[in-house]
Every structure is written in C-alpha cells, then in structure tokens.
Design a protein that fits this description.
- By secondary structure, the chain is of the alpha+beta class.
- The protein has helices at 3-14, 54-64, 87-94, 117-120, and strands at residues 26-32, 37-41, 70-77, 102-106, 112-116.
- Strands 2-1-3-4-5 form a 5-stranded mixed sheet.
- The model has no long low-confidence stretch (mean pLDDT 96).
C-alpha cells in the first residue's frame, strides 16, 4: 500500500468523526505488519476527558482484534497545518512499538510529512 492510499483511508475515516464541540474531524489509518489496516476517528464527549482521538481509536480496534505489530499510521484533518498526534496518542502508540512506527501527518491540501514515533516522542514512559 502506498502512502497516498493509506492517507486516503485516513481522510475517509475523518468523515465518520463525531465532533459536535470542536468541529475538528480527524481520521487515522493504522497499517499492521502483513497489510491489515484499522481505521479510527475522533469521538468527542461533553466531558472533555472522555474524548478519544482517532489514533487511539484505530490502535484500540487493532489490539481488540489481536494485532499489535504496526508499521505505519496515517493521520488526516481538514487543516492548513499538518495533523500531528497529541502527546497522549504518542505515548499510547509507544506501548505497542519500539519507536520505529512511521507516522504520516497530512493536511487538507494533501501534502504530508513523515516521522518515526521516536522522533515525536524520544523519551517514552516505559518500565
């Protein structure tokens, strides 16, 4: 699967977001080793702390289906800026990755940048 294909899946997932408060829809597509892709979108809640990000949604779906070996994560939002994972998502993803996970951060015009998780979170909280 190409980067563009994975980013398209993330863009499509953003259309399913539940964002009545921020109006900022985010979609994610998490590619597992072997090619399986899990999607996620952000789901807001009036109790802000109960909101879940698109990246964690995709990861939880993968874990619940027995997948824990990830190679790429694409993130998309209709934004003029690159859509980056928040700190909670970075730490959450590090639980299932040694830092080599490639993260594709896209913006509305289709341009994207690529990082390794360890670049975005160099000092994870691990035991």
């Amino acid at each position: 699967m190409t980067d563009k294909e994975l980013l398209t899946i993330a863009r499509e997932a953003s259309g399913r977001a539940y964002v009545p408060y921020s109006k900022f829809a985010v979609g994610a597509a998490l590619e597992c080793r072997g090619g399986r892709v899990f999607t996620g979108c952000n789901v807001e809640n009036a109790a802000l702390g109960d909101t879940i990000c698109a990246e964690r949604t995709a990861c939880v779906k993968a874990v619940s289906e027995g997948y824990r070996d990830y190679v790429r994560l694409a993130i998309y939002a209709e934004s003029q800026n690159y859509c980056m994972p928040c700190g909670s998502c970075r730490q959450f993803l590090s639980e299932f990755n040694d830092g080599e996970l490639e993260i594709l951060c896209c913006k509305a015009d289709g341009r994207y940048v690529s990082y390794r998780l360890k670049e975005l979170l160099p000092y994870t909280f691990n035991y």
